[in-house]
Amino acid sequence: MNSVIYLLEQQHLTTDQVLYWSTMLxxxxxxxxxxxxxxxxxxxxxxxxxxxxxAALGGGxxxxxxxxxxxxxxxxxxxxxxxxxxxxxxxxxxRWVRISSRWFVLPDASALGLYTVAGTQAALTLNSSWLVxxxxxxxTGVAGGILRDVLCNEKPLIFQSGQTLYATVxxxxxxxxxxxxxxxxxxxxxxxxxxxxxxxxxxxxIRWNLVLPEYRSK
Length: 218
Prior knowledge:
The chain is an all-alpha fold. The protein has one domain. It has eight helices and no strands. It has helices at residues 2-11, 15-37, 45-67, 77-96, 105-124, 130-151, 167-182, 187-207. The longest helix is centred in the first third of the chain and has 23 residues, at 15-37.
């Protein structure tokens, strides 16, 4: 662990670099998660690419529209290329190799952590308050998944009754990122800590069925 922290400290990543690489990695995982979630829905390759586009780019697009900033993928084709390349690779891999549905949670949890950091960072660069920045992180993390589930004709994951902690761990992770930034911790370590917290907390919530109290009318 000390060696990992040392390597992160040596990178001296700027806020823009953290935002860029968090988004790029998130594209790979969310596109893969979208393809795995769409299995059995009888989509052709073009349909899979649309699912991947909405899952990977939907949350960030909504975030940028709300924050009144340039939509991040419009002026950089690399985002589209990475999204669709990941979707196509996962599409054919899933056809050739039997992949258990339980593996869906790994890329989904990874994308949640990465997008939360990217969304929070994007808002912070515009000098948004900590509350707005943390919510933008959550929105970026979960909106793509909502679009993915709607297109797959499924009830969105975060709205399902008894669903394990999802948006909650994203919001806590966003707040952790902001606190670490305020404590003048390096951007690389702050981002890695927040991503790791969200990823492992999400897996723990699934493993031990951690849920929030439900509203039930009398």
